[in-house]
Design brief:
33% of the residues lie in helices and 23% in strands. By secondary structure, the chain is α/β, with parallel strands linked by helices.
């Protein structure tokens, strides 16, 4: 278990982490999300004692990191995959870590085989691809067979098979009762992996909740309805107090009514339906909604900067006013 209580880090007049308080619990994969510059890396470095907090506290299984007698047996971390000695072989890189932490040598081959690097154990990491470097970093994190695993962008450089493997590995580790804490910018991957989410923005805690609740609370869901009788369908919905929103292609967005109820109303009033589909937001959409005010670095959308093209110049349809 990882416990943060009022964790704060300031660099001069800039506050990178601002009174963070949350708990990362065992038995599940907890995702750690935030825009660039949100303070995720600084937070993870403080968890491992690599940076000292200005105030507040981090506890790993009830102790500060520097109080752990066998730190690799408590927590294993992948923060920077390329932070290895390029002149040592993969095996010798792990051997140095094992000897410094009283870990049996036989554990080295176990983790190298687990991450798929058994055949290149004697090769130097400076010749490794980004994906192979990631696998070596994961092997180092697993070396002490720790109760807690912490990964920062673990799928960087991995091919689809590797991404599938690390996803299943993290789920398996959590199923064994371990604490798994993972930071990633790949929302689609996080949605498939994490059960719980911790979201920060500008160093502050924005959310600490389950994946399902996070999406439900930070997104909009509706039913998309398409019919060749849009005016009639609008009147049918209006009769039960529902006002649909028309999309540009003529389809309707209906909120607050279950799809089955809409289908029943259409059948009763003999309205033909071509589409009746519930639309649920993705994790990415929910994340963008919650963190919109916390993004520190904004890129300009070139499409929005292009001058609007007049309809009389061609290439664009004139707007159609819908009758009410």
């Amino acid at each position: 278990m990882i416990e943060l209580r009022g964790l704060t880090k300031r660099y001069g007049d800039k506050t990178a982490v601002d009174h963070l308080t949350f708990t990362v619990r065992p038995g599940m994969v907890t995702g750690f999300l935030g825009p660039n510059g949100a303070g995720k890396s600084t937070t993870m470095r403080m968890m491992l004692g690599l940076d000292s907090p200005t105030s507040g506290d981090v506890r790993i299984d009830g102790k500060r990191y520097d109080q752990l007698r066998d730190p690799l047996g408590h927590i294993g971390a992948l923060l920077e995959a390329k932070a290895v000695h390029g002149g040592r072989s993969a095996y010798n890189h792990l051997l140095c870590m094992a000897q410094a932490n009283n870990i049996p040598k036989k554990r080295i081959n176990t983790v190298l085989d687990l991450v798929g690097l058994g055949d290149v154990a004697k090769k130097r990491p400076k010749g490794f691809s980004l994906g192979m470097g990631q696998r070596l970093g994961i092997a180092a994190a697993l070396l002490g067979d720790p109760k807690i695993l912490m990964f920062d962008e673990p799928v960087n450089g991995l091919d689809p098979e590797g991404i599938h493997w690390i996803r299943n590995l993290m789920k398996h580790l959590a199923s064994e009762g371990r604490t798994v804490f993972v930071s990633s910018h790949l929302m689609s991957e996080m949605a498939l992996t994490a059960e719980h989410l911790v979201v920060i923005g500008r160093g502050k805690l924005l959310a600490d909740t389950t994946m399902a609740d996070f999406i439900a609370k930070n997104s909009r869901t509706f039913v998309r309805v398409r019919t060749p009788q849009p005016e009639r369908m609008r009147d049918v919905l209006g009769s039960v107090g529902v006002m649909p929103v028309f999309e540009q292609d003529g389809a309707m967005q209906v909120e607050g009514v279950e799809p089955a109820r809409i289908g029943e109303l259409a059948a009763w009033y003999q309205v033909v339906l071509h589409e009746l589909s519930p639309q649920k937001a993705s994790l990415e959409e929910a994340f963008m909604q919650l963190t919109a005010e916390s993004v520190e670095y904004h890129a300009h959308d070139q499409a929005q900067q292009q001058p609007a093209r007049r309809a009389d110049q061609g290439g664009g349809a004139k707007p159609v006013r819908r009758k009410r």
